[in-house]
Amino acid sequence: MKKLMGFLAATILFTGVVSAQKLKADQVPAAVKAAFAKHFPNVTAKWEKEDTHYEAGFHQNGKEMSALFDANGNLTETEVAIKVSELPAAVHQYIQKNYPGAKVKEASIITLADGTKHYEAEVNGQDLIFDANGNFIKAVKA
Fold it and tell me: How far, in Å, CA of 118 to CA of 129, rounded?
């Protein structure tokens, strides 16, 4: 069961990158908007559709964030932008070794619905995904 949940979480994490499209708020299902309002009260979002999921981009407490919901309004993950310097040392080491001279354009912490944390670093047009300890998981097109 853990493997299945991990696979599903990884699928959700990586599928949206390819086909995001901007949406107006009235194009977002009521269940999704209600769930967003419950999790993030008094916050206004910009919406995108990523395959079968809906992504809300917003600012909260001075941080750039996003939240991903399925069509039924279930929160599947959140993402918070962080400073590149906040990435674990193992992430920096991996990038230096595998992308010599490359700079990290953006960094974030992704928290899946089950509480699992991943780090994301955008390098050379790719999102490099790492586990909570900084071990490389996968690269996806940014």
Answer: 7
Strands (E) across 6-94 are located at: 20-23, 46-50, 53-60, 63-69, 75-82
Cα gap 139→120, rounded to integer Å: 9
What the chain holds in terms of domains, given with CATH numbers, is 2-141 (3.10.450.360)
Q: Which pair of structure tokens corresponds to residue 117?
A: 């944390």
pLDDT tens track for 50-84: 889 999 999 999 999 999 999 999 999 999 999 99
Residue carrying the six token digits 């299902």: 29
Instruction: Report how far residue 98's alpha carbon sits from residue 95's, in angstroms, rounded to the nearest whole number.
Output: 5
pTM for the whole structure? 0.80
What's the length of the chain? 142
